[in-house]
Design goal:
GO molecular function: carbohydrate binding; glycosyltransferase activity
Number of strands: 46
Keywords: Glycosyltransferase, Transferase
Mean pLDDT: 94
CATH superfamily of the domain at 26-301: Glycoside hydrolase, family 65, N-terminal domain
Structural class: alpha+beta
CATH architecture of the domain at 26-301: Distorted Sandwich
Pfam families: GH94_b-supersand, Glyco_hydro_94
Organism: Eisenbergiella tayi
Number of helices: 19
Low-confidence stretches: 489-503
Oligomer: single chain
Protein name: Glycosyl transferase
Strand content: 25-35%
Helix content: 25-40%
Distance between the termini: 42 Å
Length: about 800
């Protein structure tokens, strides 16, 4: 069952019914101002931080779904409708939503009146611009009333939904012509305000929610809209909104357009007051002056579309598989940019108030966007490093406004330090910029050091935090936040205990061991780049020792163990009653190269296919846990088949695909790739439910009643890791310290393909030929017509264009 289709030419997903299985959303904004918008115009806006600088309210877990947003009501006689269907849910004669790159379009019609809405966030202004065009498609004059509507959030989204005894008395607004200013708390402690404006004189306004909706009304049928007359209400406390009324008379065939601007303005502290209680509007007037005409809006919109076209042109593939082309060229890279902007803070599953930026999350996200915006990747790495402690451990999250660690969550996730090496290494491979290693960055608990010193402490943290088997201590958890092996009941009947990262029992992680082998080697390479050969040699001795430990204490016979718990009992072993095999170490150990020459890597991946595979992707573990295990923690709190308890985590399915590519099994690598790839799934949207143009975090596993149903779309490391998988391992264009490596691993029938790739200021035109239908191996490499030994295109400083032909064989 389909709810829409891809328009690849326009880089849009076209939704043809508003009644999608779940709200299907888009993200507007590239820098500081962001809006989440659904296919029915639901969503919310914020500036930089979805918790602390929220402009508009959104109600999660509401009934019906998604019923607060930036809405337009059209009253046509007795009919009341919305171009995006919600919230009135009036049955429309036609409906279409087009989600594009940084913008969304909505077209709705009823009784021969048509409304077209284009909404986007301009590149260089802190606002959302919405152009609405009304057209009379009938043969008679139509008299319509148009009502806009947004509900203000009182800035701190967390406080906004809890502190009613205060907040219901603080709402303040100001009306100036067609502009409504939201200045709540400006008088006390803020030097910013919000506004909602339209570029035409209005026939009325409302700023009181009770007046607009009715005290017992709802957004589905506001009393003001039903009566067809704004009340000109001015809110004093309670729940402030912004609504404009525009009455319009349209002759047959006539169209009329209106431009609405939802904006954020920040004054300098000394500009705070013009007079007591009156905001300084100079910057607001300047902002609004830039969006008063259709031509100005079209110019800003063209700048936005040109920006995205240029940005995504950094990696483009042309192959016989349209789904691969679609995801690589458009949607996967687009989602990587969204996760760069949002980390895991603001989606329809993350409320924007609880997490901030994740340390591990942001490091992994770097892998997917570093080729697009390396200069911003550099900045992000330094921000992340400042959340590290002097001993090498880290805060698990930090706030984007303050760049300070989130003390409420704390640290103790012992995989976090190694991800800083991963992100930094990826940046240097991409850019060749080793100067970042000399940048001085503070430690969160005091002191400072170069970025390389931060990486050294990350490396040494793992070296100095090992358990009785020589494997890394897991701390509170590793990548799997719910595998809490140091939270346990010491003996039956004794009280539950929680241990921090450096105290109490000594649970160990095989997964972190695999990470250490991969990123320990990359740390050694970065040391060598700086001439630090002693450090590099010492690091490789540690890596070699961990490699041997993984093949000994980390091996279960047919697959890698997952861990040892606080009692040194095996986790993820054939000896276990439940949870005998986990996906994470099979993928990460093999992609790190562990066990390949010994034949164990192939056995581990065969075990994954035999025991974890389903038609919707690879499950995290099997068999699912049927009861709660204190010694394993939260992972066993989920019902079988959901989330970490044997759900299909799309995030680590790419690790298996990469591992298969590393050992040369292209058919299997691509099989794993396509099972969770949205472009291959739109025909099962009634099962999958989430958006068919972006990746989700998880899919219900085989043990679940809703096997195949996805959750937690958009903000997931799946985006970055899948792009790494398809772009670097399957299509095989890998940045390295010495140049661009060409090493594809594809199904035998994949066919020839071409790739355009920007790399270190040059454009590479790459043609891959596979005359013998092989899965892996490059037999010859031509660069600008000259044969090159090996499969790395040597980087030449200053050269701007390369023409490369690789023949598989």
């Amino acid at each position: 069952m389909k709810y829409g289709f891809f328009d690849d030419q326009r880089c849009e997903y076209v939704i043809t019914t508003p009644e999608t299985p779940l709200p299907w959303i888009n993200y507007l904004g590239c820098k500081d101002f962001f809006t989440l918008i659904s296919n029915t115009c639901g969503g919310y806006s914020f500036y930089k931080d979805a918790k602390l600088l929220r402009l508009t309210r959104y109600r999660y877990n509401n009934v019906p779904y998604d019923n607060n947003g930036q809405y337009f009501y059209i009253k046509d006689g007795s009919s009341i409708w919305n171009p995006g269907w919600q919230p009135s849910q009036t049955r429309l004669d036609s409906y279409e939503c087009r989600h594009g790159l940084g913008y969304s379009r909505f077209t709705g019609s009823l009784n021969q009146a048509k409304a077209e809405v284009l909404t986007f966030v301009p590149l260089n202004d802190t606002c959302q611009v919405t152009s609405l065009t009304l057209t009379n498609e009938s043969g008679e004059t139509k008299n319509l009333s148009l009502f806009s509507y947004v509900e203000w959030c009182l800035w701190n989204a967390d406080d906004d939904m809890k502190n009613f005894q205060r907040n219901l008395s603080t709402g303040e607004l100001e009306i100036e012509g067609s502009t409504i200013y939201h200045k709540t708390e400006y008088r006390e402690r803020r030097n910013h305000y919000a506004l909602y404006s339209v570029n035409t004189p209005v026939d009325g306004f409302d700023t009181s929610r009770d007046a607009f909706l009715g005290t017992y009304g709802s957004p589905a049928a506001p009393v003001v809209v039903k009566e067809g007359k704004a009340s000109n209400s001015e809110a004093h406390g309670w729940s402030p909104i912004a609504s404009h009324q525009i009455n319009v008379s349209l002759a047959p065939g006539e169209s009329r357009s209106y431009i609405f601007v939802l904006g954020y303005v920040e004054n300098e502290e000394e500009e705070k007051w013009e007079a007591p209680g009156i905001i300084n509007k100079t910057k607001a007037h300047q902002l609004l002056s830039r969006y008063q005409s259709d031509e100005a809006v079209e110019k800003a919109f063209t700048e936005l579309t040109d920006y995205w076209q240029e940005l995504l042109s950094g990696y483009q593939v042309s192959s016989d598989c349209e789904e691969v082309n679609r995801m690589v060229n458009i949607w996967n890279q687009y989602q990587c940019m969204v996760t760069f902007n949002m980390s895991r803070s603001a989606s329809y599953y993350e409320s924007g108030i609880g997490r901030g930026m994740g340390f591990r999350d942001s490091c992994q996200d770097l892998l997917g966007f570093v080729h697009l915006i390396p200069e911003r990747a550099r900045e992000r790495i330094l921000d992340i490093a400042s959340a590290q402690f002097g001993d090498g451990s880290t805060y698990h999250q930090y706030q984007p406004l303050t760049k300070k660690g989130n003390a409420d969550i704390g640290g103790g996730f012992n995989d976090d330090p190694l991800w800083l090496i991963a992100g930094t290494s990826a940046y240097i491979k991409e850019t060749g910029d080793t100067s970042i290693l000399s940048e001085v960055v503070t430690f969160d608990d005091g002191g400072e050091g170069t970025l390389f010193e931060h990486l050294t402490r990350s490396f040494e943290f793992t070296v100095t935090h090992k358990g009785p088997h020589g494997l890394p201590l897991i701390g509170r958890a590793d990548w799997n936040d719910c595998l809490n092996l140091n939270c346990f009941s010491a003996q039956p009947g004794e009280s539950f205990q929680t241990f921090g990262p450096s105290e109490g029992p000594v649970a160990e992680s095989v997964f972190i061991g695999g990470m250490f082998v991969k990123y320990g080697e990359e740390y050694a390479q970065l040391a060598e780049l700086q001439g630090l050969t002693d450090i590099a040699e010492s690091a490789r001795r540690e890596v070699s020792s961990m490699y041997d430990t993984l093949l000994d204490a980390g091996w279960d016979g047919d697959w890698f163990l997952r861990a040892y718990d606080a009692y040194s009992q095996k986790v993820g072993s054939s000896e276990c009653e439940e949870g005998q095999i986990f996906i994470e170490p099979q993928g990460f150990c093999v992609l790190a190269g562990v066990g390949i020459k010994e034949g164990k890597a192939q056995r581990a991946l065969d075990s994954v296919k035999e025991r974890l595979d389903t038609k919707y992707g690879i499950m995290l573990l099997q068999p699912a846990f049927s009861r709660y295990h204190l010694e394993l923690g939260e992972i066993t709190s989920y019902p079988p088949g959901y989330k970490e308890n044997a759900g299909i985590f799309c995030h680590n399915n790419p690790w298996i695909s990469i591992a298969e590519a590393v050992i040369g099994r292209g058919e299997r690598a691509f099989e794993v790739y396509r099972k969770t790839c949205p472009a291959f799934l739109q025909d099962i949207s009634e099962i999958h439910r989430t958006e068919p143009y972006c990746y989700s975090q998880m899919i219900a596993g085989r043990d679940a009643a809703t096997h195949g149903e996805a959750k937690n779309s958009w903000l997931t490391g799946t985006a970055a890791w899948t792009f790494v998988n398809i772009s670097q391992y399957i299509l095989g264009i890998q940045p390295s310290l010495t140049g661009l490596c060409i090493d594809p691993c594809v199904p035998g029938d994949f066919g020839d393909f071409t790739i355009t790739r920007r790399f270190r200021g040059a454009v590479y035109h790459i043609e891959v030929k596979n005359p013998n239908h092989l899965e892996k191996g490059v037999s010859s490499l031509l660069v600008d017509g000259e044969k090159v030994d090996g499969n790395v295109v040597p980087f030449v400083e200053g050269k701007k264009e390369y023409h490369v032909t690789a023949v598989m064989g």
